[in-house]
């Protein structure tokens, strides 16, 4: 049986050690927005040979198992309309300029009113869509990506082969330019989002009963979950977020797209192939699914949800790296209260030099990096199929952790010495909204346990002791006393409106993004 | 006449824990104290609890809260009340850990403090309470209660009650609607009452009234130094302005409670008692007077300035912070609010020229001290004395009828809260006391703040007569400027109402068509007032920003029906002059035409 999902008879294909370990693939060049955009793109696209159901976490695999494919849109016309005016000058080909002018003329024909009104409308639409830019950086217009606010803004990566195109004089029409737009590069939509999608598709295709053995009692909240409900509710909420709640934006994009019918990507085979994920990733996929479900079913507004989902995708990448690495790493001890067998010790972002936990957090970061490094080397030595560039493996299987963690501000400082795990307020608030069901209340101590159970982040005393035991560090009494100070966490949660103090000894954490439990909820109890 | 040691002063000094004699702070000793009866202010909860315990369905009532919230007092009162003992009279002997009272409806068991028992005993009590006949009232600290209750739940196959129990512990406590706090998962209904959710601000002010008017002061009349005694002068000033001081104290407690942290009743009583005596005993007062070289009542002025209520209440002695008082939680919290700074140039001028020139009248008992302070306050360096004078005005100043406006500015600035006084009025009246125009203006101010928070444009950028709350697709990351925003919901201002929530005792903004509510807590209300007055730079703290975001999320949930006519699309767009205009378009998807509406 293949140890990959989707099952792949090319399991023995030689690739670099990072892909052999973590799946196909994580890429350190992928930005957080594009993790989310790609994840949602696969989710929202039709999948399989017969292009079946879209907006679902499932794959329809035909007889040919190697054809795990999906059918993403490219939105090239909308990108031309939105991003061309601000695109990098030296990669604007003549044909693009021509096409852009023509596109505006075409659009004008579909707008009623005087010429000045038409111009005004076009400026308005451009201003609107450019407000949803996800990543532009220094890229040419076609590689810019949108914030994945609606289905109509989800697009695959297309690249423009500018050097090649500028060397030829054969490009006279838009169709001639077609062959210089390519979709197989995966430079930005680099399959990281695909991998996250595949984790969930694999989870929901799984019918084994126990995914996480709850020895510690820290996983009681996910023990009785119905995967079927989790899947259907998440799909339904996401569909509604991306489509039905945002009809006018979808209608406008469709209007532009149809009006610019002449500017499509002139390629017939529009499907994209999917990568694969190791089947051992079920436990972390379940945690991911639970958190995603909490986010999408909350009452936050959709753009807030997207922001948190973006954080979730990045955290899931970090978590997946460590879960898999600790499985590969023979050195890893087991750890009480967490199935991941690793630990991240995080400290107050403002902790001054010399504070015990800051040192612990630095050591913890070093240890995690050492583990990631170790497993890559080990794979390269022990797996005959792990070939290819070690430099690439290093970049996408080791440096990627540091890069994403810094983008999240989960590891500081951005440059310089003393890198350590910290929890800034936006991450703590993210934990409340993603780890507690909307409206749920738990005791603060249980919250610490839950953060530990999902991410291996040690906050409370017991978790810290477990984490220190894992890392083999002696918990000398002075550090222990410092570490027990969780005052900064409580203060941050209070500031966010998530912490309620019941008495001196008991505080509760409340995910207040649920439907308001008015007195009627209590009334139901009374009846 | 000879000097006299008034035992009541000793009692007051035993209520705060700044001196060694803090023994009377506990309910158990209060219950046996003869001074307590007159101070006693019954909890409205007691009669309601008696009624519930007499109901035909047997119930288990659990009473919890902070140490010092009054749990034991309530239990004691229920105990007396069931046995028809007068509530004001002290008990002859302390109440036992567990008492069983036979009544017509059967036995009522009262457990005084479950937290003092071992966990096995606690389980056994809970088992008896739920599974055997009888009604139970159990008092417990919150931590042990939660553990025991969840353990008991687990033994009964109720594993997932944590969130529900915590929701009840977090629920507001309103004596008139206790049924809301019932959990129905065990053999008997379980009523959970968390006294930390009881609003005790008004109760605190009433206790001050009782402390001032207490008959224990009468003993002072027999004392030789009564004319100059600082303790008596302080009390005389308070008595003269009793209702005024009670109001001001209530305002201050409201502010601490809503901005900083709720105080327990014990902390409130400690602060008030300290405010009355400044920690001074009769013997000390007497010694001070004896060494004074002044004549008559003036002999007490120097000592009075150290213990005056408006000083000791805030933790000062004659304008200087008194470090001992940091131990009183209420004072420590009050210090953070920095009350006492200058109000305005004209107020400062009046302060120096003579308090009588200003907006306020002071009680006769304070005139000599006010004159003394004013004389020294003209010195450039007398910052602390001027602050003391301001605090004196804040506590004792009676508004002159022709200077109400100045007085209001003074209060709002001193308390750092423009919405506090109105909120206090509404809470006392139990409704919003606003004229139609005032109500309309406040509603508009609220909605303008929401409009700003949701769209990122300032309310003044909109047309002068705008009357819609627009919900737009605005990025929370603010990574790029969005001068054009797609409107995904547009709610007319007229669909919003201001009402008073009688359970939460707060005003709320209601979106009428769907009953979505935003509670206007004091910090939010203040923010709205400040924005309406054009103040800039006061950012809303994250906690309230999050509240507004949640409100927006809830509005969007119900607003799905409100996306306008089919094919109608609207935008907000800020032009180059900064003015925000609404653009409306009609999109005909069939014919593929876009037209400006």
Provide structural commentary.
The complex is a heterodimer of chains A (527) and B (597). By secondary structure, chain A is an alpha+beta fold. Chain A has 2 domains: 31-206 and 217-277, no CATH class; 344-519, no CATH class. Chain A contains 21 helices and 16 strands. In chain A, the strands form 6 sheets. In chain A, strands 11-12-10-14 form a 4-stranded mixed β-sheet. The longest helix of chain A is centred in the middle third of the chain and has 27 residues, at 302-328. Chain A is globular. The model of chain A is unreliable at 517-527 (pLDDT under 50). Chain B is an alpha+beta fold and 597 residues long. Chain B folds into 3 domains: 44-197, Rossmann fold, CATH 3.40.50; 217-416, no CATH class; 433-596, no CATH class. Chain B has 24 helices and 18 strands. In chain B, the strands form 5 sheets. In chain B, strands 2-3-4-1-6-5 form a 6-stranded mixed β-sheet. In chain B, strands 11-12-16-17-18 form a 5-stranded antiparallel β-sheet. In chain B, strands 13-14-15 form a 3-stranded antiparallel β-sheet. The interface between A and B is large, with 67 and 71 residues.
- Radius of gyration based on Cα positions of chain A: 25 Å
Task: Provide the spatial order of strands within the biggest beta sheet of chain A.
Answer: 11-12-10-14
Mean pLDDT of chain B: 87
Q: Stretches of chain A where pLDDT falls below 50 for ≥5 residues? A: 517-527
The description of the largest β-sheet of chain A is:
4 strands, mixed
What share of residues are in beta strands of chain B? 5-15%
The largest sheet of chain B is: 6 strands, mixed
